[in-house]
Amino acid sequence: PGDFKSPRDSEGHGTHTSSTAAGREVAGASYLGLANGTARGGAPYARIAMYKVCWAFGCSSADILAAFDDAIADGVDILSVSLGFPWPIPYLEDPIAIGAFHAMRKGILTSNSAGNSGPWPATVSNYAPWTLTVAASTIDRKFIAQVALGNGKVYNGLSVNSFDLNGTSYPLIWGRDAANYSAGGNPDVARYCFPGYMNSYKVSGKIVFCETLWDGSGILLANGIGTIMADSSFPDFAFNYPLPATVISTEEGQQILDYIKSTKNPIATILVGEAWVDAMAPSVVSFSSRGPNPMTPDILKPDITAPGVDILAAWSPVAPPSMYYNDKRSFEFNIISGTSMSCPHASGAAAYVKAAHPDWSPAAIKSALMTTASIMDAKKHDDREFAYGSGHINPEGALDPGLVYDASEGDYINFLCKQGYNTTTLRKITWDNSSVCTSTEPGRAWDLNYPSFSVAVEDGQQILAIFNRTVTNVGSENSIYTASMYIPTSIGVTVEPSVLSFSKVGEQKSFLVMVYGPPITQQPIISGAIMWKDGIHVVRSPLVIYTILPGSTYSSSYSLPHKTPNFEGLSMYHKNGILTGK
Ligand SMILES: *[C@@H]1O[C@H](CO)[C@@H](O)[C@H](O)[C@H]1NC(C)=O
Ligand SMILES: *[C@@H]1O[C@H](CO)[C@@H](O)[C@H](O)[C@H]1NC(C)=O
Ligand SMILES: *[C@@H]1O[C@H](CO)[C@@H](O)[C@H](O)[C@H]1NC(C)=O
Ligand SMILES: *[C@@H]1O[C@H](CO)[C@@H](O)[C@H](O)[C@H]1NC(C)=O
Ligand SMILES: *[C@@H]1O[C@H](CO)[C@@H](O)[C@H](O)[C@H]1NC(C)=O
Ligand SMILES: *[C@@H]1O[C@H](CO)[C@@H](O)[C@H](O)[C@H]1NC(C)=O
Questions:
Q1: Domains contained in the chain, number
Q2: Looking at the structure, do residues 109 and 194 belong to the same domain, yes or no?
Q3: Helix axes 409-418 and 423-430, enclosed angle (nearest 10)
Q4: Distance in Å, CA 284 to ligand 6 centroid
Q5: What angle do CA 381, 383, 385 make, to 5 degrees?
Q6: How far is the C-alpha of 367 from the C-alpha of 540, rounded, in Å?
Q7: 532 belongs to a structural domain
Q8: Phi, psi of 430 (to 5 degrees)
Q9: Are residues 122 and 28 in the same domain?
Q10: Domain shared by 145 and 252, yes or no
Q11: Is 152 part of any domain?
Q12: Residues 103 and 167 in one domain
């Protein structure tokens, strides 16, 4: 029910992500006046081909693989895939990793969402080294809907609130006092204002205070005017609702409760939403999935961060515009959040780089995006690169990176063989009967020519890693690059040679990076960066060092419900909001 047996979008997710990646300018785009302005895709002159793989019950692996095949056959240039498993699975069982491998062989970069399972460590999904894994960060705009109480107090709640109560105050009640007993409700359920348990005689014409963030339907269906929800779980992005609604912290909620209890006729109003400046931006949003990489600890993931919070983009007019699944209003634009929204920003940037450099490999495009990324503020992120990878996407910088860390299909095959794959298991990924693992000698992932450096150290062991990397000159014909770095003083890093001279474009030079230091225990992350500079370009790669327990596999704890049950044991997706998966 609710699905169309056609490519038509009944959810909005695919329309939103596609119009973020590409699409021409539309003036006067807004969510009922909020975020009004000219909207366009990241690569406005690119064309979009959409492949529908998700349905109301989830996304099947067969559909995902078929879509990769179709897209490759159709000759697409970049694949934007805002989907992912919410738990770690090996590359050979992951249809997105397999599809992206096939795309890579044909010169197509796949850009993926990192997942919405943060902020817990090792929750990142889509960690294959041949894909670009994108975290979500804030933009310099946040959506506030203020609450004004009868006592003059004003609270700055978070909400994409398009409803205007014109400043009129309404009676304010506590959901706990409005249980519908004949429906099986009681005060302990009604305090959360869950749909079906509210007494419409008590709620009608009032603003209701609720003790958790929900979709607002409990109050809407009981004819309430609006709702104030107290919940500190989602402090850095806004949802939208089917009625006047806003979300404040639990501490502020206590103050509102005190007010309700202390006065005979408590009243409140919820003001129409506004876009305020977020001076903290860009910072990685709490829900964005974090590294380290749960499958290959020596490859840093996520790779990069891009805008994924409160993003305005196109919407399917038949999809519900708020969190409430039965919201029948019809809009052409919507404001939602998720790594699903950051992924297509990176896809658009990748298309932009590809347009300027049609002959660059997927690895070269990815390298250009990563080594030119803007530096994120480590002080705002305890988990540093495990939140943002190489940094914040900088599309214009990526057009002219100076040097790239290139890699071919053969390099990724060597990587897989060292990760324990043999010829039989390797071919389950490549589907190519000529691919072989010549040696099954296990090894670190440090040989892969990756644009970032990750050293996973077993707890209590010394730090020692040697990376052999090769850069290709894509800048000026004659150029000389000098190595520099920053890293905490307890860590030694040498780069050999420390000067690379190029005399033509396309020339390659190799260098060794040695990282060494004392034994470390329970070290979540030490980080710095290695940079090649020629006076014009700064080719920057983060270096992270951290401990893992001997023989450990990460036990990822997933805090948030994802959409829908699995289909054929398979994929979930990084939906817009997070609470949609009731
Ligand atoms: C959006 O802005 C344009 C130009 O300023 C204005 O004409 C239009 O009425 C606005 N739309 C809404 C819905 O506020
Ligand atoms: C607020 O005022 C506008 C314009 O006068 C009106 O259309 C709208 O119905 C009013 N809203 C409420 C909740 O009274
Ligand atoms: C209480 O719930 C019942 C069952 O859903 C419903 O029929 C009734 O209208 C509700 N009463 C009020 C006052 O909301
Ligand atoms: C390849 O690896 C798989 C899985 O580890 C194993 O079952 C299989 O026996 C191996 N095949 C060969 C030829 O070693
Ligand atoms: C690869 O080899 C298998 C087993 O010999 C065969 O069934 C399959 O058709 C071959 N695949 C291709 C693409 O040639
Ligand atoms: C590093 O890799 C390059 C390219 O594969 C190779 O030519 C070079 O010998 C390697 N250097 C070392 C010190 O292993």
A1: 2
A2: no
A3: 140
A4: 36
A5: 90
A6: 10
A7: no
A8: -80, -25
A9: yes
A10: yes
A11: yes
A12: no
The closest-lying atom of ligand 1 relative to the alpha carbon of residue 30 is: 13
Same domain, 112 and 27: yes
Tokens linked to 517? 């230091």
**Enclosing H/E stretch for 20:** helix 13-21
Residue at 39 is within a domain: yes
**145 and 269 share one domain:** yes
Centre of ligand 4 from the C-alpha of residue 295, in Å: 19
504 CB burial (10 A radius; 0-12, 13-18, 19+): exposed
User: Which atom of ligand 3 is the closest one to the Cα of 198?
Assistant: 14
Q: How many CB atoms lie within 10 A of CB 455?
A: 23
The secondary structure of 239-264 as a DSSP string is: ---SSSEEEE-HHHHHHHHHHHHH-S
Q: What is residue 536's DSSP assignment?
A: S
Give yes or no: residues 117 and 148 share one domain: no
State residue 440's pLDDT score.
Answer: 76
pLDDT at 559: 26
Round to the nearest angstrom and report the end-to-end CA distance of the chain.
17
User: 320 C-alpha to center of ligand 2: Å?
Assistant: 23
User: Angle 203-263-271 (CA atoms, 0-180°, nearest 5)?
Assistant: 55
Report phi then psi at 314, rounded to 5.
Answer: -65, 155
Domain of 23 in residue numbering reads as: 1-136+295-368+389-398+558-582
Q: Which atom of ligand 1 is nearest to the CA of 32?
A: 13
Q: Which two tokens stand for residue 558?
A: 């997933």
* Ligand 4 atom at shortest distance from the alpha carbon of 422: 1
Q: Has residue 223 been placed in a domain?
A: yes
Is the peptide bond preceding residue 451 cis, with omega within 30 degrees of 0? no
Low-confidence ranges of the chain (pLDDT < 50): 553-582
pLDDT of residue 550: 67
Candidate of 32, 166, 206, 243 to mutate for ligand 2, largest count of ligand atoms within 8 Å of Cβ: 166
* CA dist., res. 303 & res. 292, Å (int): 11
E-strand ranges in 69-190 read 78-81, 109-113, 131-137, 141-149, 154-158, 170-174
| CATH number of the domain to which 342 belongs | 3.40.50.200
Assess whether 156 and 267 both reside in one domain: yes
The residues that bridge with 404 in the sheet, in sequence order, are 472
Q: What is the pLDDT of residue 569?
A: 28
Q: What is the pLDDT of residue 56?
A: 83
DSSP state of 562: P
pLDDT number for residue 552: 55
Element (H, E) at 274: strand 274-277
